TrEMBL record:
<dbReference type="InterPro" id="IPR029058">
    <property type="entry name" value="AB_hydrolase_fold"/>
</dbReference>
<dbReference type="GO" id="GO:0016787">
    <property type="term" value="F:hydrolase activity"/>
</dbReference>
<dbReference type="InterPro" id="IPR050471">
    <property type="entry name" value="AB_hydrolase"/>
</dbReference>
<dbReference type="Pfam" id="PF00561">
    <property type="entry name" value="Abhydrolase_1"/>
</dbReference>
<keyword id="KW-0378">Hydrolase</keyword>
<feature type="domain" description="AB hydrolase-1">
    <location>
        <begin position="37"/>
        <end position="289"/>
    </location>
</feature>
<dbReference type="InterPro" id="IPR000073">
    <property type="entry name" value="AB_hydrolase_1"/>
</dbReference>
<protein>
    <submittedName>
        <fullName>Alpha/beta hydrolase</fullName>
    </submittedName>
</protein>
Amino acid sequence: MSDNASSPAASGIRSGRVEANGWQLAWEERGPGDGEPVLLIMGLGTQLLGWPEPFCDALSAAGYRVIRFDNRDIGLSDKWTRRGDYTSVRTAFLRSSFGLPVRAPYTLADMAADTVGLIEGLALGPVHLVGASMGGMIAQMVAADHPDRVRSLTSIMSTSGARSLPRGKLRVLMRMGSRPASSDRAAIIEHLTTTMRMIGSPGIQNSREQWAELIGRGLDRSYHPAGTARQLLAILASGSRETLLRRIRVPSLVIHGDADPLVPLAHGRHTAACIPDARLWVVPGMGHDLPPPLHGDLAAGIAEHAAGTDRDAA
């Protein structure tokens, strides 16, 4: 493991920072140290806390070594500090919609290289790779370009990036581009809570109070909106992955909710259609989140997918 890993806590959770592709990335793991590693990659502007504790616990209870980490520019991982002439987010949206180039500090390919570096730095060997939203995009790239590092792929509420796919609901897209009324902690929590309520699973997501508590925990750990903007530029600068997806040969599961207002179900269907022999799992009532009533089912489905690949390799 990394040089500065902590000793195992009473809860069995271990954490530290590891050098990966020139970045110090914060990581956390649980479960048996000799279990097959499941590496979780979170989405845009979201810390490793975005992977719910019950979901992680369910995977570790199934015998897997579960690792979650902060992507570059977010959480406790290194932040981008170099200056440069980069496209503004508003202009980047327009340019990407017409297939025009976007200048970004880094791309999803760079973030995929971070993930490969983390796999190497933690000496994980081939992993079961699970990515949500932007994390799904990163996972797709790692699976395509580094099949020796990946035992299986699970892409959740993500996309192929094809320009022909339908956009999310306008009010949701406008909300994603909005800012808190002030830099006051309460205002930030209120703003982010409302945003998550808009994109979350209707009827089965966290309550407003639960979202506020989770978001508050994240704020206490780290708050870095500039990193979120740069990660968004990385997405917009990276374009479509249609051709890349067709190169994936590892067993792949695509999970998408039929109530996702941010990344419509068509994106999941197209992702699954592009990956050879991928299996699509459409989850009724799921939006752009990992709602509590689905934690057990999602973990069980991913564990079953991973176990099937283990049997195939035996």
